[in-house]
Amino acid sequence: MRSGKGGAGQIVLVVEDEPMQRMLMADMLYDGGFWSVEASDAFQALHLLESRHDIRIVFVDIKLPHGMDGLELAAIVRHRWPDIEIALTSGILAPTDDTIPDRAVFFQKPYRSQDVLPVLHRMIH
C-alpha cells in the first residue's frame, strides 16, 4: 500500500496484470492524494475486496489473465459492492455503454494523470 500526500486519502484498488503499468498507476494515484492496493488479476482483486472494507474505487484493466476479464470483475463489483466506484481502462478494447456497469467510467490507454485524477476525485465526493 502506498500512502497519499493529503488530498482524498481514499483507497483505490488497481487491477492490472502488467507490473510496470500497475506501478505507474499506483504512483499517479499517490501523487493525486490517493492510497492504493494492487492486484494482478480479478481473483486477487476479489480476495482484496472480500477482506477489506475501505476500498472506494476499483481501477481495472479490461484485459486480464486467468479466465476473468475486467468487465466481468466490474459486473461482480457493481452487484456485490454497489457503493464502490469503477474505472475501466484498456489500450486495446473500448467497451460500449451497454457492456460497462452503471456509473463506471472508461479511460483509453495511454491515459494522463490530468485526465484521470479529477474524475476519480469527483467519483468519491
What's this model, at a glance?
With 125 residues, the protein is α/β, with parallel strands linked by helices. It is built from four helices and five strands.
How would you sum up this structure, described in words?
The chain has helices spanning 19-31, 42-51, 70-80, 113-123; strands at residues 11-15, 35-39, 55-61, 85-90, 105-108. It has 125 residues and is an alpha/beta fold. It has one domain: 3-Layer(aba) Sandwich (Rossmann fold), CATH 3.40.50.2300. Strand 1, helix 1 (19-31) and strand 2 (35-39) form a beta-alpha-beta unit. The chain is globular and about 30 Å long. The two termini are 22 Å apart. Mean pLDDT is 92; it is low at 1-7.
Topology (SSEs and partners):
Elements: E1 11-15, H1 19-31, E2 35-39, H2 42-51, E3 55-61, H3 70-80, E4 85-90, E5 105-108, H4 113-123
**CA-atom Rg in angstroms:** 13 Å
Shape: globular
Strand order of the largest sheet: 2-1-3-4-5
- How many domain units? 1
Q: Report the structural category.
A: alpha/beta
CATH architecture: 3-Layer(aba) Sandwich
CATH topology: Rossmann fold
Summary keywords:
125 residues, alpha/beta, Rossmann fold, 5-stranded parallel β-sheet, 5 strands, globular, disordered N terminus
